[in-house]
Design goal:
Layout lengths: L2 E3 L14 H14 L11 E2 L3 H6 L11 E7 L6 H9 L2 E8 L6 H8 L4 E5 H4 L24 H22 L8 E4 L4 E4 L9 H6 L5 E6 L1 E4 L9 H4 L2 E3 L7 H12 L13 E5 L4 E4 L3 E4 L6 E4 L4 E4 L5 H9 L15 H15 L8 H14 L1
Parallel strand pairs: 2-14, 3-4, 3-6, 4-5, 8-14, 9-15
Antiparallel strand pairs: 1-10, 6-11, 7-15, 8-11, 9-10, 12-13
Length: about 375
C-alpha cells in the first residue's frame, strides 16, 4: 500500500558516480511511484500550495548555494558510498563527529585526504556540553536524566555534536562557508525530488525565498526483502512511504492494514529530518529539526516530494545491533529500547538467548538454531 521502489546506485560493482542521465532516470522512477495525493498535515508552508510556487522558482538559478551535512558516526563505519552519493546531489562539505575518544590512525589519514570532510571525535565535542544552552530547553529535559546512556545518550550527544559544528562554522575557524545545513545519520540519504529539475539540493535550497529558514524532508523507511544485505543503499529498493506523502483519506482507510501488529506506521521515526539556513542564531532542536532563536519570522517549509531515505532496519545484523550492545547498567537496559519494535525484538531476543538452558556441550548448534528462530520471528 505505502511502498515504493528506488535504487540510488546503478550497481554495487560500479564506482558510485551519478551523472545527470542517471539522476533523471531516478527522478522519473519516483515520480511514477509517487503519483497521487500528497497533501501535508503540517500547518506551515507546504510545497503543494500556491504559496510554495511563489516562494521557489528553479529556472535559471546558478548552483552557488553551499550545503553541508553534520552527522555522528562510528570510526569503523564505511562512509564511501554515503559520501559519494551526497556529493553527486550537491553537498559541498561534510562535518563528521566520530563517537569515540580516539580513532585509528588509518581512519584519520583517510579523511584528512578529503578536502570536503572535516572530522572530530567525541573527546573534542563533549567539553562543549558545559557551555551548551540546549540542556535548559524544556523539550530536551526528558532525555537528560541519570544514568545518561542508551538512546538518551545518543540523542543528547548527536544534538551537542550538531550545536558544536554550527559554532565552528559560524566562528570561521574551519574556513568553510555554508548557506544551509542538514543533520542526518549515515544510514540516511537525502533525496531532493523537487519539480522537474536536476537532483541538485543546492540548486533547490538556493531558489527558496529568504523568508524560508527551515525545510523539513519527510522520511521514507527502507523495507528489506532479505535478511542480509551487503550494501543496503544498493540492495534495498523497497520503501514504506511517509504518511505525509499518502492521501489523507487513503491513509486513514488502510493504515491499520499497513501497520499490521506494529502500533506505528514505521518501525523507526516518521517526523523526517531538516535542513536549516545557516544564520548566527541557528541551533539544533534534537536530531530532527533546528530553530532560529531570534529570527522568529522565518517560515518552515515541509516538502511534499523531497524525502530522506532511511535505511535503519535494512539489515538483520544492524537491527540486532540496536540493542545487543547496550551501554547502560544492568538495571537500566530498558533505556536502550524506546521504539515499540525494539522492545518486542529485545523481548524475543531475551526469550531465545538469555532464558535458554545452559548447554555448553552443543553451544554452536544451539546458537545456530536460536539465531534461525529469531530470524524467522
Amino acid at each position: 500500500m505505502a511502498t515504493l521502489r528506488n535504487r540510488p546506485f546503478k550497481s554495487k560493482r560500479q564506482k558510485v558516480r551519478l551523472n545527470v542521465a542517471t539522476l533523471r532516470s531516478i527522478l522519473c522512477m519516483l515520480l511514477i511511484s509517487l503519483i497521487g495525493s500528497r497533501r501535508s498535515t503540517i500547518t506551515s508552508v507546504d510545497s503543494t500550495t500556491n504559496d510554495f510556487q511563489e516562494q521557489v522558482s528553479l529556472r535559471n538559478i546558478e548552483t552557488t548555494t553551499r550545503v553541508g551535512i553534520v552527522c555522528t558516526a562510528r570510526p569503523q563505519s564505511d562512509l564511501q558510498s554515503w559520501l559519494d552519493y551526497h556529493r553527486a546531489i550537491g553537498i559541498s562539505h561534510f562535518f563528521i563527529v566520530f563517537d569515540a575518544v580516539e580513532i585509528p590512525l588509518s581512519v584519520q589519514q583517510r579523511y584528512r585526504r578529503l578536502r570536503d570532510v572535516t572530522f572530530f571525535t567525541s573527546s573534542q565535542t563533549q567539553p562543549w556540553g558545559q557551555n551548551s544552552d540546549i540542556f535548559h530547553l524544556k523539550r530536551m529535559q526528558k532525555h537528560i536524566n541519570a544514568p545518561m546512556c542508551g538512546v538518551d545518550r545518543v540523542f543528547i550527544q548527536q544534538t551537542l555534536n550538531a550545536e558544536f559544528v554550527i559554532k565552528e562554522i559560524l566562528s570561521g575557524k574551519r574556513g568553510v562557508r555554508l548557506d544551509w545545513l542538514f543533520h542526518i545519520d549515515t544510514d540516511e540519504l537525502i533525496f531532493p525530488l523537487v519539480g522537474s529539475q536536476k537532483l541538485d539540493v543546492g540548486r533547490f535550497l538556493g531558489s527558496l525565498s529568504k523568508s524560508i529558514g527551515r525545510v523539513v524532508f519527510p522520511n521514507h523507511e527502507a523495507v528489506p526483502e532479505r535478511l542480509n544485505n551487503v550494501d543496503p543503499f544498493v540492495d534495498v529498493t523497497l520503501f514504506r512511504r511517509n504518511h505525509k506523502h499518502v492521501g489523507e483519506e487513503f491513509y486513514a482507510k488502510y493504515k491499520n492494514i499497513a501497520k499490521r501488529d506494529n502500533p506505528r506506521n514505521f518501525l523507526g521515526y516518521s517526523n523526517g529530518k531538516s535542513a536549516a539556513r545557516v544564520l548566527d542564531d541557528l541551533r539544533p532542536v534534537g536530531v530532527h529539526n533546528f530553530e532560529h532563536i531570534r529570527s522568529a519570522g522565518l517560515k518552515e517549509l515541509t516538502l511534499a516530494d523531497g524525502v530522506i531515505l532511511h535505511y535503519g532496519f535494512a539489515d538483520y545484523s544492524r537491527v540486532i545491533g540496536r540493542f545487543a550492545h547496550c551501554d547502560c547498567p544492568k538495571d537500566f537496559t530498558h533505556k536502550c529500547k524506546r521504539l515499540p519494535f525494539d522492545m518486542e525484538l529485545a523481548h524475543k531476543y531475551d526469550e531465545l538467548y538469555l532464558l535458554r538452558p545452559n548447554n555448553n556441550n552443543n553451544n554452536f548448534t544451539t546458537n545456530t538454531l536460536l539465531e534461525q528462530a529469531l530470524q524467522r520471528w
